[in-house]
Design a protein that fits this description.
Layout (H helix, E strand, L loop, with lengths): L1 H21 L3 E6 L14 H10 L4 E3 L5 E3 L2 E6 L5 E6 L13 H13 L12 E8 L2 E6 L6 H4 L10 H7 L13 E7 L3 E6 L13 E6 L3 H10 L4 E2 L7 H5 L4 E7 L3 E6 L10 H4 L1 H9 L3 H9 L4 E2 L22 H10 L6 E8 L2 H15 L3 E8 L1 H9 L5 E6 L6 H8 L13 H11 L4 H18 L2 E6 L1 E7 L2 E2 L15 E2 L1
Parallel strand pairs: 1-10, 1-11, 15-16, 15-17
Antiparallel strand pairs: 2-3, 4-5, 5-7, 6-7, 8-9, 9-10, 11-19, 12-19, 13-17, 13-18, 14-18, 20-21
Length: 504
């Protein structure tokens, strides 16, 4: 009888052990909004980049200190004249459909970014004249002129590689079922509900993929995301509210990760995009400067973010080597702001349509700005719009003032050209200045920091005085996760990377 009992107990133990061994590990990630289309060529959303971090490897990546490191590439070499960049590719890589990744596939992906209708990668790779596959694992980028930010561009969506076979078959429907070469492959998407991916068995770096399945859950309200994390419905969430930091730190089951953003939060002014630009704010730089002088960035940081964010007035934060010390953050000066309004001929209160995204912190920022700017004679009419709708409205010129949060890039070019040059896709205010364009071309042509910084000084002087953007602060990426999650590293681009991450 005892022997039978021991046999049954042993069998049960082995059965339980087998069940545990075969159980899939499942990571649930809470996103701040629903990603746009899952095509790296046409995508625009920050949250989509978080999903791409698992789906679509790039030629290069960045590390915790913003250094460029190889991913699908092994390395690169730039010619003496700076007009040719030769990239050596990693051998033995497969796409999720089993097709090989090689020089022809890299050539296809880069040309797709450059030429496909609706591509948002085209301006990022505009310096590329043609792409050649010069060997099975060697691709050569011939440039129109030297372009120092190229490798930095290839650490993001412009460097993501897609399966030529799948892309050709899907056409403009590729975003519905993306096929890339990342650690996870696409399983399903239910709009406004979830995106599911699972571990790719033939991934080139598979020994470092330690979680079987990931589900991305868009939950717009940060408070609700945190409640789901605390109850066990999520394992990790991005964009924790600064006001909720204490809650996370006081919970022994949770951990907090922080990293200063490469990007910025700014307010954008419609200066030349349709009828809504036809007002004193859009037409007169003095009124735009008056608006800026009515804002106290440090007070804004303290009130909304408990002092956790970094005030700033430029496209790079004050710790960045490209920050222009000659143009410090201006102090609030209501008297000067009122004088500029009077000089511009503005009498009474100036009503301004202020379009913002629908998030608690964005609304809080807008309300503080509304209160601050009122003292200088502005009447900001806050209009809350869903994120994708806001982007479309901005493109159509349906705004006078618009909040914008840019996630940032490691090279300053990635924070400037898309917003500041004539006709660029994120330049929704239609600002255009030929000097600014020429200076950006000059900055791109040099790889020397001192030379480039001197050019950016000229850009800074003119754009801050006359441009269409008012930079306010640089966020902290605040990511909260279960204490069971191991080896997670906060990154300066805020993206949740899953290599080497495990769930206890």
């Amino acid at each position: 009888m005892r022997q039978t009992a021991r046999t049954i107990a042993l069998a049960l133990a082995l059965s339980l052990a087998a069940g545990i061994a075969s159980a899939q590990t499942h990571l649930r990630i809470g996103l701040g909004d629903d990603p746009d289309g899952l095509d790296p060529t046409t995508s625009r959303f920050y949250t989509t980049r978080i999903v791409f971090a698992a789906l679509c490897d790039k030629l290069f990546d960045i590390d915790e200190k913003s250094n460029i490191v190889p991913q699908l590439a092994l390395g690169s070499e730039t010619s003496a004249d700076g007009k040719t960049v030769t990239i050596t590719l990693r051998p033995g890589v497969k796409f999720h459909d089993g097709e090989p990744f090689n020089a022809e596939a890299a050539k296809y992906s880069l040309e797709r970014h450059l030429n496909m209708k609706g591509s948002f990668r085209k301006p990022e790779l505009a310096a590329v004249d043609r792409v050649e596959a010069t060997g099975p694992l060697t691709v050569k980028l011939n440039l129109k002129q030297p372009f120092s930010p190229l490798l930095a561009q290839l650490t993001d969506r412009a460097g993501m590689m897609v399966s030529p076979k799948a892309a050709e078959a899907a056409g403009d429907k590729f975003a519905l079922k993306p096929v890339c070469a990342g650690p996870y492959k696409f399983v399903e998407r239910v709009a406004q509900d979830r995106i599911v991916v699972e571990k790719f068995a033939d991934y080139w770096n598979k020994d470092h993929v330690l979680i079987d399945k990931i589900t991305y859950l868009p939950i717009v309200d940060s408070t609700v995301r945190l409640a789901n994390l605390r109850s066990g419905g999520l394992d990790i969430m991005e964009r924790l509210l600064a006001t909720d930091i204490k809650t996370v730190r006081d919970d022994p089951k949770l951990r907090l990760s922080k990293a200063v953003s490469l990007g910025f939060f700014a307010i954008l002014i419609n200066v030349a995009n349709g009828p809504k630009a036809d007002n004193p704010l859009g037409k007169d730089a003095r009124v735009r400067r008056a608006l800026e002088l009515s804002i106290d960035r440090e007070a804004l940081n303290q009130v909304v973010f408990n002092g956790e964010f970094m005030p700033g007035n430029q496209w790079v934060n004050p710790q960045n080597p490209y920050y222009q010390q000659a143009f410090p953050i201006p102090k609030r000066d209501i008297a000067k702001a009122q004088a500029l309004m009077k000089e511009a001929g503005v009498t009474g209160r100036l009503s301004v349509d202020f379009m913002i995204g629908n998030s608690p912190e964005t609304r809080a920022v807008a309300e503080v700005l509304q209160s601050m700017t009122a003292e200088a004679g502005f009447d900001l009419k806050i209009r809350v719009v869903e994120a994708a709708t806001a982007l479309k409205s901005a493109e159509d010129g349906d705004f006078q003032l618009y909040e914008n949060n840019w996630s940032g890039r490691i090279d300053p070019d990635g924070n400037t050209v898309l917003y500041q040059t004539c006709g660029s896709p994120l330049n929704t205010g239609r600002y255009c200045d030929k000097d600014i364009d020429a200076w950006h071309r000059e900055a791109r042509a040099s790889s020397d920091l001192a030379t480039r910084k001197a050019v950016y000084e000229k850009i800074t002087g003119k754009f801050l005085a006359e441009g269409w953007m008012i930079y306010l602060f640089h966020p902290q990426y605040l990511i909260a996760h279960t204490a069971r999650l191991e080896n997670f590293k906060p990154m300066p681009d805020g993206l949740i990377r899953v290599i080497d991450v495990r769930l206890k």
